Amino acid sequence: MAHTELDLQERVAIQRMLEAKLPITQIAARLGRHRSTVYREIGRNRFEDEELAYLNGYYGVVAHKSAQDRRARRRKLVRLDTLRDHVVDRLIAGWTPEQIAGRLSHEGQAIRVSHETIYAYVYSKEGQSERLARHLPSRRKKRRPRYARRPRDQVFPPDRSIHQRPEHVKTREKFGDWEGDLMIFERSTGKMNVASLVERKTRFAVLFRNNDRSSTHFMITLMNVMEPLPQPARRSITFDRGFEFRAWRRLKADIGTESWFCDPQAPWQKGSVENLNKRARRYLPRDTQLAALSNRNMKAICDRLNGTPRKCLGWRTPTEAFRDEMMKLR
Fold it and tell me: Domain Integrase catalytic, which positions (predicted)?
């Protein structure tokens, strides 16, 4: 059955049945709607006014007008090409809907749009056809309810323990299993840090600057770094249990990469990346001013680390080993 919006007649019927004190389940049954549809309708379109509190309640005609006004606001980004192009351009540039809406207000633009309207457009049929959701910080395919319950399971559940990793990860038999960590610097550098990644079989290192220690920000940046690799080159990443890695589920959901976690207080279990951090400290001491480091600087450090012959690789360099493995995937 195709989805249809409630019409005026149904909303008036809801008002009358509420006045008759009928339960929501019975109202929904009479309308042929799911009870959650009726609950949501009453919650969204109920009239409320602090100064006229005695009039607060659900009124069919008022509710219908509220719903139409909301739909008109949501369609603003469909009707106005210039506004839509501006919003899409800012989304692609990495701005959040709140930043886009706030900036329009700050600039005193005659035509503005709320962040909720931008979110509604992103998840609308038009927005989904343009795959706009991938530019959002959350990178979800569907939007969660604003007050959705938080999952109560453990942040790092037992089935993600390093002891549950496939044997081939431990033995380095296969290509595409990584270890990840954060290199922390002095407080004077602010929230900036450097993320370190190393591919276990080839010892190939990746370093990138991370401007915020929040888990969401870190995972988004990490996914942007890893996603260009073919899937077999990013099978899994092993982390410690730092709070920066709490959003690990996004790796699996968005780019298909598994996550594994060391035991508490056992960073030595991801020895490859710990070794990388020690070598990288020669170029990135704790008092490094990260804000002054450009992407070119970071690449130069990676090139130096990856261009050094390694005994464990038969004196090949990590770059050579990584390139050989990538060639096998073609």
Answer: 162-326
